[in-house]
Amino acid sequence: MRGKFITIEGTEGVGKTTNIEFIQSWMDTKKLSYSITREPGGTPLAEQIRELLLAPREESVSSTAELLLVFAARAQHLNQVIEPMLGEGAWVLCDRFTDATYAYQGAGRLMRDDLIRELELLVQGSLQPDLTLILDIPVQVGLARAGERSAPDRFEQEQVAFFDRVRNRYLQIAQDNPQRCIVIDASRSLEGVQAQIAEALESFWETV
Ligand code: T5A
């Protein structure tokens, strides 16, 4: 049987990395075979593209170049990791996927949705996540959390208005895809966030 594809999304510093460990322990209790990966990245080539995308630089990066790099990394990741794992029956937990492109390149960079949609079709065909957890938090809180952890990458150097657009797009995506997306209130304590995630996972499990 084909594996399930779970993605975790949200604005900067929302707690994706922190909560992936929690989801991993849930998958362990269910005795699932799984792979944990991330975007951009997940293969040696895609990780190199990630470095290109995240490195702060003097040169201004064209939004089109950024969009194509994101999808180039995704094409490689799908081909080398996601599709083979799902085909073998393993679950795949991915830190960000195409919703991030609609949020960051679409709403953030103001790239046209129809262009993103064309690239989405080219790169992933009809493949969509089975479950997407969207961690939601006021932008300033997330940026403060991320700032305490490490120096800002190229995206984290953007203005608050950029991240407000990103956050609103994520909420819109959740509204448009209620069968796939669950919004988690990530402003609560870690225990509070994880209780919501556990509930979402258990509800999903009942449908598997
Ligand atoms: N990107 C990506 C695009 O533009 N287009 C795309 O298509 C894709 C796929 C890199 C960037 O790439 C862009 C978007 C991104 O800018 P990333 O590394 O996944 O993607 O993004 P980041 O958001 O930068 O990831 P971070 O690692 O910064 O944030 P996390 O993982 O959401 O947050 P985390 O878990 O590291 O937590 C941050 C801090 O908060 C604390 C943690 O301990 C940590 O110190 N924390 C909490 N504190 C209090 N209460 C809680 N509930 C907490 N939860 C976590």
TL;DR of this structure?
It contains eight helices and five strands; from the N terminus they run βαβααβααβααβα.
How would you describe this protein?
With 208 residues, the chain is an alpha/beta fold. It has one domain (5-207): P-loop containing nucleotide triphosphate hydrolases (Rossmann fold, 3-Layer(aba) Sandwich). Helices cover 57% and strands 13% of the residues. The chain has 8 helices and 5 strands, in the order E-H-E-H-H-E-H-H-E-H-H-E-H. The chain has helices at residues 16-29, 44-54, 63-87, 98-108, 113-124, 139-149, 160-176, 190-207, and strands at residues 5-10, 34-38, 91-95, 131-136, 181-185. A 5-stranded parallel sheet has the order 2-3-1-4-5, sandwiched between helices. It is globular. The structure holds P1-(5'-adenosyl)P5-(5'-thymidyl)pentaphosphate.
Write the layout of secondary structure elements.
Layout lengths: L4 E6 L5 H14 L4 E5 L5 H11 L8 H25 L3 E5 L2 H11 L4 H12 L6 E6 L2 H11 L10 H17 L4 E5 L4 H18 L1
Parallel strand pairs: 1-3, 1-4, 2-3, 4-5
This protein binds P1-(5'-adenosyl)P5-(5'-thymidyl)pentaphosphate.
Spatial strand order of the main sheet = 2-3-1-4-5
Ligands and ions found: P1-(5'-adenosyl)P5-(5'-thymidyl)pentaphosphate
Report the span from N to C terminus. Answer: 11 Å
> pLDDT under 50 segments (min length 5)?
none
CATH C-level class is: Alpha Beta
Tell me about the largest β-sheet: 5 strands, parallel
Count of alpha/pi helices: 8
What is the assigned CATH homologous superfamily? P-loop containing nucleotide triphosphate hydrolases
Number of strands: 5
The outline comes out as globular
Radius of gyration: 16 Å
From the helix content, strand content and strand pairing, which structural class follows? Answer: alpha/beta
